[in-house]
Specification:
Elements: H1 10-20, H2 25-32, H3 36-43, H4 52-61, H5 66-76, H6 80-92, H7 97-108, H8 115-126, H9 132-149, H10 152-166, H11 173-182, H12 192-208, H13 212-225, H14 228-244, H15 248-258, H16 264-280, H17 284-297, H18 300-316, H19 320-328, H20 342-361, H21 365-381, H22 385-401, H23 406-426
Length: 427
């Protein structure tokens, strides 16, 4: 069969393949559902640029590979509407990303339509695609094309959506945070909703990485421009960020504003923060009472942070009996962890570390090492290398300071490295 590079017309491709396959026009019509006269006109060159939707069933009947047909059209076709139809077909068939981007690039260069309109149409269509890797490749194409044509809004929008996808790779949180910050250069070309969303997501991202001052700055941008839902969430993050850096007065001032919102989750967050402030003021017993009562009725979302804080307070007070009761009735399990949320993963890692300290306190060294190694793995999931290293060093310190079987610790570390390498391989 002739290759696409030397076939002058699509008619030749159909005719030569049909002839080589010893199939009559009548037979091809029956196989494809395309009228005989239409086939004849295509083969004779009377239809010089037949629609892809007409040729595709002919190619399928003649067993011409879909990719070969697409390559032919991409090489010769210039009409934007037809190239867009081909692009949709390649996406529906889940063709290779290389082929899809090849068609999309040719579509964007169509001479019969304005470049801005072409870019806008492709951008809108990307939103309906489910495959994230495919979406990412097409957003990269949008960015590259927009840069070369000076289409500033779609440089901004492409970078924004690229960031939304890439930030979900928790093993690259530091790298993707820098990419997100770069978008600020184009922020004026985003819609007001996109700007607020970007600042809020950067705030969460910064908090996860313990960049608390940057987190505070981004939250304040949300407060300037956001709607009530975004403002509420930004206030909640501000409270935690200020608390984390020891700016307790500022934290409590924002808590006063936060109390005015009546979303179900805000009420639980207020109770948790009240417990934290109470403990900070030295009223440990009262804080413990608040948390114990809270754990009776709180949602699953709050169980891990509440249990973590309560167990930490008991260990600080050396109230081992109360801590033992918590461990015997522990509901803060992995099943409650939303692994799509890095903050939740970080909170669970912190909790595992505190459990490790509890088991060390009660003399169960094997379980202590087990929990330290496990919490290191959870820190590794969110690119927190310093805390991961700290947890592993603590596990080794516990091992060397106690009479522990070397094989037991080696087995735990071996499992850790195996699971950690799988995480890196899946990113």
């Amino acid at each position: 069969m002739k290759t696409a590079s030397i076939i002058k017309t699509i008619g030749e491709l159909i005719h030569d393949t049909r002839f080589a396959s010893n199939i009559t026009i009548t037979q091809l019509s029956e196989l494809s559902g395309i009228n005989k006269s239409t086939i004849s006109r295509i083969e004779n060159g009377e239809v010089k640029r037949p629609d892809f939707s007409t040729v595709q069933p002919l190619a399928a009947a003649l067993k011409i590979p879909f990719e070969t047909l697409v390559d032919y059209y991409v090489e010769n076709e210039k009409r934007s509407d037809l190239l867009f139809d081909i692009l949709q077909a390649t996406i529906q068939r889940r063709s290779s990303t290389e082929l899809i981007c090849k068609v999309a690039a040719k579509y964007l260069e169509s001479p019969n339509e304005d470049s801005l309109d072409l870019t806008k149409k492709l951008y809108k269509h990307i939103g309906s695609i489910e495959d994230t890797s495919m979406k990412l490749s097409l957003y990269n194409l949008i960015i590259e094309h927009s840069r070369s044509h000076g289409i500033m809004p779609y440089i901004a929008k492409g970078l924004y959506h690229k960031y939304l996808i890439e930030r979900n790779d928790f093993l690259k949180l530091k790298e993707t945070f820098q990419n997100g910050k770069y978008i600020r250069q184009y922020v004026d070309f985003l819609s007001s909703e996109e700007r607020v969303s970007l600042y809020y997501k950067l705030a969460i991202h910064a908090y996860t990485l313990n960049y608390h001052n940057e987190c505070i700055d981004y939250c304040k941008e949300v407060l300037k421009n956001g709607e009530s839902q975004f403002k509420t969430d930004a206030l909640g993050v501000l409270i935690d960020a200020y608390f984390s850096i020891g700016a307790y007065t500022e934290s409590e001032l924002y808590l006063l504003q936060y109390r005015n919102f009546t979303y179900p989750y805000t009420k639980e967050n207020v109770v948790l923060m009240e417990a934290f402030y109470t403990a900070r003021r030295g009223e440990t017993v009262k804080a413990e009472e608040i948390l114990l009562e809270f754990l009776k009725t709180c949602s699953n979302t709050s169980i891990i942070p509440a249990t973590r804080q309560l167990l930490q307070l008991y260990l600080q007070e050396n109230n081992i009996e109360a801590a033992k009761v918590i461990m015997e009735n522990d509901r803060a399990t992995t099943s409650l962890v939303d692994e799509r949320n890095p903050l939740v993963c970080a909170t669970y890692a912190d909790y595992l570390q505190i459990k490790g300290k509890y088991y060390m306190t009660v003399g169960d060294i094997d379980k202590s090492i087990e929990h330290m190694v496990e919490c290191a793995l959870w820190y590794s999931k969110i690119d927190d290398l310093s805390k991961e290293k700290e947890a592993l060093n603590t596990a080794m310190h516990i091992h060397f300071m106690n009479n522990v079987s070397p094989q037991s610790t080696l087995d735990k570390l071996r499992e850790y490295y195996q699971r950690s390498s799988k995480l890196e391989g899946s990113s």
